[in-house]
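In the design runs reported in the main text, the only information available to the sequence generator was the tokenized backbone. The following block is the verbatim input for one such run; it is reproduced so that readers can re-run the procedure and compare outputs position by position.
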């Protein structure tokens, strides 16, 4: 999926005359960003979810991503410290815990027969995915000041996808048959949806937000996407929500608003 999306993005950049030559000094950083943001993020994330229920994985990954984005932005001097954003992250983590609490609780008994050690290792893998993604995002910002966002999105996804395919062929015996494309139309529809909205739109927009507003504010997507997922479940599958879910979504949206709101004494261009 990411390989196809990367090829499309680079082709579009080429057609618009936005396919620059990467300087020798920027190449090591671009390679590092490419490895961190996709292979070293999604590889451990998907592997860890074999041993961790989806609710726990969502809380770990979505709550740690904005925390790590802010932490690395501060450590690397990319952003100044602001108590308002720290408060927004605390609120967002609390909202995620509330929103996914019913699912985590219901899956506790089902996971009791699994090895506690493997659940711990899986949780660490999911957590590491958020940390390395955040580090790669902060490292990418100087590159985004020099290269177009669609070029950055296309180059990182294309080469990351090729690397993931190679790793899958080496480590997973069934991957060769999967490459034949005999997936069925629902899988193909999901694949096309992820290419369009996950990579061509979502990932490119994230790159633009990294460039324009910084890593910690761009990370506010982690507080909005669970709310959208719940609402889509209601609309498309008739899922029911109660006071707990409503409370969690309200806290999450409040956290996103607080994270994105500009201080009164600062102009949006600053």
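Verbatim output:
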């Amino acid at each position: 999926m990411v390989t196809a999306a990367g090829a499309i993005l680079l082709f579009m950049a080429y057609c618009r005359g936005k396919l620059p030559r990467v300087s020798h000094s920027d190449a090591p950083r671009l390679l590092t960003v490419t490895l961190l943001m996709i292979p070293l993020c999604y590889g451990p994330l998907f592997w860890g979810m074999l041993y961790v229920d989806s609710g726990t994985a969502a809380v770990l990954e979505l709550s740690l991503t904005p925390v790590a984005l802010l932490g690395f932005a501060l450590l690397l001097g990319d952003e100044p410290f602001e108590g308002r954003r720290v408060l927004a992250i605390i609120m967002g983590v609390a909202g995620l815990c509330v929103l996914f609490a019913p699912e985590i609780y219901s899956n506790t008994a089902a996971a009791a027969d699994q090895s506690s050690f493997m659940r711990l290792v899986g949780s660490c893998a999911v957590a590491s995915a958020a940390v390395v993604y955040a580090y790669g995002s902060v490292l990418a910002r100087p590159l985004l000041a020099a290269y177009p966002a669609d070029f950055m999105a296309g180059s990182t996804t294309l080469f990351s996808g090729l690397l993931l395919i190679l790793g899958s062929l080496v480590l997973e015996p069934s991957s060769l048959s999967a490459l034949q494309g005999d997936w069925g139309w629902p899988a193909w529809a999901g694949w096309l949806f992820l290419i369009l909205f996950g990579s061509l739109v979502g990932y490119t927009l994230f790159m633009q937000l990294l460039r324009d507003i910084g890593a910690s504010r761009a990370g506010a997507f982690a507080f909005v996407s669970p709310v959208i997922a719940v609402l889509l479940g209601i609309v498309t599958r008739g899922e029911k929500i109660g006071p707990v879910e409503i409370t969690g979504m309200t806290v999450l949206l409040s956290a996103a608003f607080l994270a994105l709101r500009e201080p009164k004494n600062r102009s949006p261009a600053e």
